[in-house]
Design brief:
The complex is a heterodimer. By secondary structure, chain A is of the alpha/beta class. Chain A is built from twelve helices and 23 strands. Chain A is 29% helix and 22% strand. The longest helix of chain B is centred in the last third of the chain and has 16 residues. The chains are: A alpha/beta, B alpha/beta. The structure holds flavin-adenine dinucleotide (2 copies). The site of one flavin-adenine dinucleotide has 42 residues of chain A, from helix 1, strand 19 and helix 9.
Chain lengths: 451, 289
C-alpha cells in the first residue's frame, strides 16, 4: 500500500470521529479504522444523549475542561451541521431530607466549575415547573445549560465533515497489530495494512487491547453497563427538564429525560460487566426502571414502551480520562471516555490537536471549512415528510427518500442498525410490525447493488 | 380547506366495508385515507386461507380477500399513500406525496387496526440480534417480499395468530422448533395444541415464559423459564405473536372518535371487523354518530 497518512485513528465512536474531523479540517491526511460494520458500533451507540455542562464533574479535571469546550463548540457549529438542540435544562431533584442537605454542595461545585447560572429551586417552584412530577420532592437545583441532542446525527455529521476534508473511513477494519519503525506506523487491520506517521487510539471498550500494540496497557477497561427504557411519544410532554437524581459517589444515577425525537426515557443503570461488546438488557432491571419512572411521574401509567436498550461505558480504574501522547513512538492514547464522551468529543479533539502541535509539529494552515449538514431526525426542526414523499416507517414518519439517502454515498449504512440510527425507521412504537419487511427489502436491494 | 361529510381513517376490512355501506346508503361525500400504497389492511400479507366467509360466503387467502375488498369500493374515494398524522377536533392533518395538508370532516371513523406487541415492551432480556419479529412482520417478509428471515424459530404465544405464524412458516419451508405459552393452556379457542402437534409437528409448551434472547448477529438461542427452571433452546429466530395493541395514537386529541374493527381493542377476525365497519356506517347514516 503506497499511501502514508499523517494520522490513523483507531475507533469510529464519537470520540474518534470528532478527532478525525479536527485533524482533517486542520489539513492533515487522515484515516479512521473501525472494527464494526459501521461507525458508532461501541459505547457511542447507546447513551442518554445529554449535552452536559460539567456542573457536577470533578473540579480541575481534564474531563471537565473537555466537556465545557465540547459543549461550547457543539453550540457554535450545530446550526451549520443541522444538528438539533433541545434547551430543556436539568433539575437535580432531592427526594429526602438527606438528599436535600446535599444540594448546597452541588450548587457550590457547579459554581466552582464555572457554571454560574445553577441555582436552587424550592418545592413550590418545582411544582410549578414540573406539575406532573410526583409530590414529595424536598428541593431541587436548576441547571439551565444541560441540553438534549441527537446522539447519532452529531457523530455522523463529524464523520461527513471529515470526509469532505479528504479523510478516509474504513469499516470492518479491526486493527489487529502494528509495527513502529523509522518514525512510521504500519498497522495491520482486517481491511489491509495502513501506514501512518501517528496513531491515535480511540478504541473505547477495547482501548486497553489496542494499547498493547504499543505497550503493556497502563489502564484496564472495566465496562459499566447502562440500561434504558424509552416510552411512547405521548409521555414526552409530561416533563420539561431533564430530571436528575442527587448523585452518589459511584454514579450520576438514573435520569428521566426527553429525547430529541420526542420520546421520554429513563436510565441508565450502572452495572459492572465483563462483556465489552454486546450490551444486553434484563427483565428485572427494565421492570425496576419502569417502576422508578412511574414513581416519579405517575401520569406515565398506561403509556406504552417503545424501546429498551443498553450501552457500555468504557470505564478504567481511573476517574479521569486517560489522554496522553507517547512522543517517541508517535502515538496518542485517548481512553476511558466513560460517561461524558458525547458532550466532550469536540473538546477532546481540540485537546488532542493541542498535544499534536506541542509534540509532533505544527499543523498546516487549515483550508476553509466545508460544512456538511446532516438530515434532521428530530421533532424540533423540519422533517422531510412535511414536504411530501412516500412514508415507509409510519410510526416515525420516515420517507423512502431518507432511507435511500442513508444507503448511498461513502458512509452508507453498514447494517440495519446503522440504517435505523441514520433514519429512525423501525424505531417507533410498532418496532417494525408494519415496515420492517419493506425496509429490510430496500436494504437488501441496496446491498446487492453496492460494490 | 377541503370538507367531507365522512372521513374514514384506515383502508382495511373495517374501513372499506364502512365506505361501501355508506355509499350504498347514499351518504354524501365519503373519503377513505389509507397510508399504504394499496388498500386492504392486514389481509394483504396473510397469504394463507381463512378470509371472506363472514362477508362474502367464500374462503379466500388474505390477498384475495383484500383484492375483493378493493374491487367492492371501486369508484369510491379511497386515497392510498395518504397518512393521517393527527386529528384535532374536526380537522385531520394528512400527508401525501405532495406535502402536508388539512382536511375537515363532519364525521370521522377510525379504522386503523391493531398491531402485535413487539419485543421491547415485553421486556425480554438478552442481546439484540436479528431474527426477532412479530407475526405481522414475518408475513410481510414471506408473502410480500419472498424473504426467509430464519429457518428454526421459536414461536411465542398461542393466540390464533400464532397458528397464522405456523401457516406462514410452512409456506416458506421454515420449521419452528417449539411454540411456548405462558398461560396454563393454549389461548386459541380451537383445539390448537392438537393442531400444532398433529398438523405441523411442533411441540407446544405451556406455563413457559421467554426470559432472554441471545446471539450476536442472528439469534442463536432463547432462554425459557418453566416452573422456576430455566432452559436454553437453540434456534435462529423468535416469532412474537399476538398481545395485540390498538393502533390508537390518533385518539390523543379526539378521544370520542368513532371506531370500527380492531382499533377497538380485542382482536377479531377480519370478517367481524368487516361487519363492524358496516354497522358503523349504518349508525352514521342513522345520525347516531
Ligand atoms: C449508558 C450510557 C449513557 C451515557 N450518557 C451520556 C450522555 O448523556 N452524555 C454524554 O456526553 N455522554 C454519555 N455517555 C458517554 C458516551 O457515550 C461515551 O463517552 C462515548 O460514546 C465514548 O466514545 P468513544 O469513541 O470513546 O468509544 P466508542 O463509542 O466505544 O468507540 C470506540 C470504537 O472503536 C472501535 N474499535 C474497538 N477496537 C477496535 C480495533 N481494534 N480496531 C478498530 N476499531 C476498534 C469500536 O468498535 C468502537 O466503535 C454515556 C455512555 C453510556 C454507556
Ligand atoms: C398476522 C395476522 C394474521 C391474521 N390472520 C387472519 C386470518 O387468517 N383470518 C382472519 O379472519 N383474520 C386474520 N387476521 C386478523 C385480520 O387481519 C384483522 O382482523 C383485520 O385485518 C382487521 O381489520 P381492520 O380494518 O380493523 O384493520 P387493519 O386490517 O389492520 O387495517 C387498518 C388499516 O389502517 C391503516 N392505517 C392505520 N393508521 C393509519 C393512519 N394514521 N393513516 C392512514 N391509514 C392508517 C393501515 O395501514 C391499515 O391498512 C390476522 C391478523 C394478523 C395480524
Amino acid at each position: 500500500m503506497a499511501k502514508t497518512f499523517d494520522v490513523a485513528v483507531t475507533g469510529g465512536g464519537v470520540v474518534g470521529l470528532a478527532i478525525l474531523r479536527r485533524f482533517a479540517m486542520a489539513g492533515l491526511d487522515c484515516v479512521l479504522l473501525e472494527r464494526g460494520n459501521d461507525i458508532l458500533s461501541g459505547a457511542s451507540k447507546g447513551n442518554s444523549a445529554l449535552l452536559h455542562t460539567g456542573f457536577d464533574a470533578p473540579p480541575g479535571s481534564l474531563e471537565l475542561a473537555c466537556m465545557q469546550a465540547g459543549h461550547a463548540e457543539y453550540l457554535a457549529i450545530r446550526e451549520r451541521l443541522n444538528l438539533p438542540l433541545v434547551r430543556s435544562g436539568a433539575l437535580v431533584v432531592a427526594w429526602s431530607e438527606a438528599e436535600r442537605d446535599r444540594l448546597g454542595a452541588i450548587i457550590d461545585q457547579a459554581h466552582a466549575n464555572g457554571v454560574a447560572d445553577v441555582r436552587p429551586v424550592n418545592p413550590a417552584e418545582l411544582g410549578r415547573m414540573e406539575p406532573n412530577l410526583s409530590p414529595g420532592a424536598t428541593g431541587a437545583v436548576l441547571v439551565p445549560g444541560e441540553h438534549i441532542i441527537d446522539p447519532w446525527s452529531a457523530p455522523l455529521a463529524y464523520a461527513h465533515q471529515a470526509l469532505a476534508h479528504g479523510a478516509e473511513i474504513l469499516r470492518r477494519a479491526e486493527v489487529t497489530g502494528g509495527e513502529f519503525a523509522a518514525g512510521l506506523w504500519t498497522l495491520s487491520s482486517l481491511a489491509g495494512t495502513v501506514r501512518a506517521r501517528l496513531v491515535i487510539n480511540a478504541a473505547g471498550n477495547f482501548g486497553d487491547r489496542v494499547e498493547t500494540i504499543l505497550r503493556p496497557s497502563p489502564f484496564t477497561i472495566h465496562p459499566r453497563r447502562g440500561q434504558f427504557v424509552v416510552f411512547d411519544k405521548p409521555a414526552a410532554h409530561l416533563v420539561s427538564a431533564i430530571i436528575l437524581p442527587v448523585p452518589t459517589e459511584r454514579t450520576k444515577g438514573v435520569v428521566l429525560f426527553r429525547t430529541a425525537f420526542g420520546n421520554l426515557a429513563i436510565g441508565p443503570t450502572a452495572e459492572d460487566v465483563d462483556e465489552r461488546e454486546v450490551a444486553a438488557t434484563d427483565t428485572q432491571t427494565l421492570n425496576r426502571l419502569r417502576e422508578r419512572a412511574l414513581a416519579m411521574l405517575p401520569a406515565l401509567e398506561g403509556v406504552g414502551v417503545n424501546a429498551v436498550y443498553a450501552g457500555l461505558r468504557p470505564a478504567t480504574q481511573f476517574k479521569d480520562y486517560v489522554i496522553e501522547a507517547v512522543v517517541p513512538e508517535r502515538w496518542i492514547t485517548v481512553a476511558g471516555i466513560r460517561s461524558t464522551g458525547l458532550t466532550a468529543a469536540l473538546g477532546i479533539a481540540c485537546h488532542v490537536e493541542g498535544l499534536y502541535a506541542r509534540h509532533f509539529g505544527e499543523l498546516p494552515s487549515p483550508p476553509a471549512p466545508i460544512w456538511t449538514p446532516v438530515p434532521n431526525l428530530t421533532e424540533g426542526l423540519p422533517r422531510p415528510y412535511m414536504q411530501g414523499g412516500e412514508i415507509v416507517c409510519h410510526c416515525e414518519w420516515v420517507t423512502r427518500a431518507e432511507i435511500d439517502a442513508a444507503l448511498a454515498g461513502p458512509l452508507a449504512a453498514g447494517g440495519l442498525d446503522g440504517l435505523k440510527r441514520r433514519t429512525r425507521a423501525m424505531m417507533g412504537r410498532c418496532q417494525g410490525f408494519n415496515c420492517a419487511a419493506h425496509v429490510e427489502a430496500i436494504f437488501r436491494e441496496a446491498q446487492r447493488g453496492a460494490p | 380547506m377541503e370538507r367531507r361529510d365522512v372521513v374514514i381513517v384506515g383502508g382495511g376490512p373495517a374501513g372499506l366495508s364502512a365506505a361501501l355501506r355508506l355509499s350504498q346508503l347514499g351518504i354524501g361525500s365519503v373519503s377513505v385515507l389509507e397510508r399504504e400504497p394499496s388498500a386492504g389492511g392486514i389481509p394483504r400479507h396473510c397469504g394463507h386461507l381463512g378470509f371472506g366467509w363472514q362477508s362474502h360466503r367464500r374462503i379466500w387467502t388474505g390477498p384475495q380477500f383484500a383484492a375483493r375488498l378493493r374491487h367492492d369500493v371501486e369508484g369510491l374515494d379511497v386515497r392510498t399513500a395518504h397518512t393521517v398524522l393527527g386529528i384535532d377536533g374536526d380537522r385531520l392533518k394528512v400527508q401525501n406525496t405532495d406535502g402536508v395538508f388539512e382536511l375537515a370532516a363532519a364525521r370521522i371513523l377510525l379504522a386503523t387496526g391493531t398491531r402485535e406487541t413487539p419485543r421491547a415492551p415485553r421486556f425480554v432480556g438478552g442481546t439484540r440480534p436479528t431474527g426477532v419479529m412479530t407475526t405481522g412482520a414475518l408475513q410481510a417478509h414471506v408473502y410480500l417480499h419472498h424473504h426467509k428471515p430464519f429457518s428454526r424459530p421459536v414461536i411465542i404465544g398461542s393466540e390464533w395468530v400464532a397458528f397464522s405464524a405456523l401457516l406462514t412458516c410452512r409456506h416458506m419451508g421454515i420449521r419452528p422448533v417449539m411454540m411456548i405459552e405462558a398461560r396454563d393452556r393454549i389461548s386459541a379457542p380451537w383445539p390448537g395444541g392438537l393442531a400444532a402437534g398433529l398438523l405441523f409437528g411442533v411441540r407446544v409448551r405451556t406455563r413457559t415464559r421467554l426470559v432472554a434472547i441471545s446471539g450476536r448477529d442472528q439469534v442463536d438461542a432463547v432462554e425459557l423459564e418453566c416452573d422456576g427452571r430455566t432452559e436454553c433452546i437453540s434456534c435462529d429466530g423468535v416469532i412474537l405473536s399476538g398481545e395485540f395493541v390498538p393502533e390508537a395514537s390518533l385518539l390523543a386529541n379526539r378521544p370520542d372518535a368513532m371506531l370500527a374493527g380492531n382499533v377497538h381493542g380485542a382482536v377479531k377476525t377480519s370478517g367481524l371487523c368487516w361487519r363492524e365497519g358496516r354497522e358503523a356506517a349504518e349508525r352514521i347514516a342513522r345520525g347516531e354518530a
